Amino acid sequence: MKSQNTFEIQKLKPNEVEDFRDLVKIFKDVFKNEEQISEKKQLAKLLSNPNFMVFVVKQNDKIVGGLTIYILQRYYGTKPVAYIYDVGVSPDFQAQGIGSSLIAEVCKYCKDNGFEEAYVEVESDDVDAVNFYKKTKFRREINATHFTYTFEN
Question: Which InterPro entries match (predicted)?
Fold first, then answer.
């Protein structure tokens, strides 16, 4: 039997769409995102994509956080890079070391599976996120300017 504070980190399999959906709900809450969650068919398609991964944190079989990764194949080398896209922990479970443990576990996974590196981008005005990542065991910090191109339908 697991204790109340035991957390389990796992990589989702393609058939674990409901767990992915639960994580996206946490992302919506944490990021104050008003967009509608994609249909299960789209989430299943993402989970089946070999260049996309989802890691979740569970407590007593309930999703309390997680992250998504896009795997970037390189043309200057043979090892892929993990682009950590979204990281979120349910507000009720923040400040308990879950996010740091998640980042550490994912970095170990990437190292063990032949990745060159993993990286995450954060908006410089998101002070909480910047402070969180500064507490993790990163190798270097790069300041960059992000340009976005949007396309109207």
Answer: AcTrfase_GNAT_prd, Acyl_CoA_acyltransferase, GNAT_dom
